[in-house]
């Protein structure tokens, strides 16, 4: 993604893509482009969630360590 990644914006875009895909007038060319963009967004969201999970786990683990 070219600009700074915002998770909420990506989810909103994915929701818009799903709505377009459900429309009965979605042609094949549009279907391909929307599916490609959705795959990019899903990969970026997965990466962000994985990084956030690791960061949160590290924070929680720091509480378990005696000082």
What does this structure look like?
This protein is mainly alpha-helical and 67 residues long. It has one domain (7-64). It has helices spanning 7-22, 28-64. α1 (7-22) packs antiparallel against α2 (28-64). The N and C termini lie far apart (41 Å).
Descriptive key words:
67 residues, mainly alpha
SSE layout and pairing:
Blueprint: H1 7-22, H2 28-64
Helix pairs in contact: 1-2
Alpha-carbon Rg, integer: 17 Å
Number of alpha- plus pi-helical segments: 2
What count of structural domains? 1
Task: Let me know the largest β-sheet.
Answer: none
Residues in β-strands, percent: under 5%
- Number of DSSP-assigned strands: 0
Overall helicity:
over 70%
Please provide the ordered H/E string of secondary-structure elements.
Answer: HH
Summed up, what is this model?
The protein is mainly alpha-helical and 67 residues long.
